[in-house]
C-alpha cells in the first residue's frame, strides 16, 4: 500500500521539478538576442561593425534556429530530450560568456551562433516536454514558460544599458547574462540522468511524415512570419526609436515594454488557446494589431512611442500562440517533436531574409519608412497562415 501511495507523490514531484526546469530554460531563450539591441550602437562602434553586418547579426538567430533545430528530433531519438536540452544549455553558457570578448565582428558572430545553436535545440524540444509531462495542461504550461521567456527577454532589454553604464564597458554588461544560463543548467543535468524524461517515438507505428500535412505547412508559414516580425522588433526597434530622436535609455525601456506585455498576455492567451477548438480568430486579431503598430511607426515613431510599443507587444504574443498550436496539433509527444522541428525549422528558414532585408532597405533609403512598409505588408501572409494553422486539426 505504501508503494502505491508513493507513486502519485513521485509523479507530482517529477512534474513540479520538470516545471521548474522548463521555466528556468525558458528564461534564457531570448535574452541572448534581446540584450544586443539596446547596446547595438556601442557594439558596432567597438567592433567597427557596418549596418549590413549588424543586419546579419539580427539574422544569426533565425539561421541557427532553422539549421540546428532540424537536427533536434534525431538527437532526441538517440539521446533523449533532456540530455539534448542540457547540451543546448551548455552551448548557451559558453557562447554568452565568450562572445562579448571577441576582438572582431566575425568572431562575435561565430560565438553568437554557438549560443544560439544551444537555444535552437531547447526551442524545438520544450513543446514535447510539455506534451509529455502535462498532456492535459498544454495551454497553461506553454503560457507559463512563455511568461518566463518574456521575463528573460524583458530583463535583458531593460537592464543591459544600466549594467553597461555600471561596469563602464558594454562587454561586461553583455557577458553577465551567461550567469542566467548557468543557473538553468543543473536541473537539466539531473533530468538528463533519467532517460524516461524524454518521449520516444512509438515503435509500433511508422513515423508521421509531417511535411505531407497541410496543417504542418500552415504552422511553418505562421511561425516564419511571426519570427520575421519578432526578430525585426528585437534587432531594430530600439534603433528606430533612437533614430527618431529618443534617448538610448527611453528606447530600451520602450523595447522592454514591448517584451513585458508578453508576460500577462502570453499567459492568458495560451491558456485560452488551449481550451478552445480553433485558434484562428486569435491569430487573425494579433495580425491586425501588428498592422496598426507597424503603421504607427511608419507614420512617426516619436508621435506615440508608447502606443506603438504596446501594439507591437500584443502582436509578439503570436509566439506563445504558435507554440501552443504546435503542441495541440500533434496527438503524441513524439509527433509534437517532429511537428515542432518542422514548423520551427522551415519557419526560421522563411524568416532568414527578413532582418537582413530591413537593414539593407534602411541603408539604401536612409530611413525606416520603406522597411516598415514591408513589415505592414508581411502581416497579411501571417494572418492568412494563422487562420489555417488555428483550425481544429491533429496529426
TrEMBL record:
InterPro entries: MFS, MFS_Cyanate_Porter, MFS_dom, MFS_trans_sf. Pfam families: MFS_1. One of its GO terms (molecular function) is transmembrane transporter activity. It comes from the Bacteria. The chain crosses the membrane at residues 48-72, 79-98, 104-126, 138-158, 170-190, 215-238, 250-269, 281-299, 305-328, 340-362, 368-389. Keywords: Membrane, Transmembrane, Transmembrane helix. Residues 18-393 form the Major facilitator superfamily (MFS) profile domain. GO terms for cellular component: plasma membrane. It is a multi-pass membrane protein. It is found in: Cell membrane. PANTHER family: 2-NITROIMIDAZOLE TRANSPORTER, PTHR23523. This is CP family cyanate transporter-like MFS transporter. It comes from Actinoplanes octamycinicus.
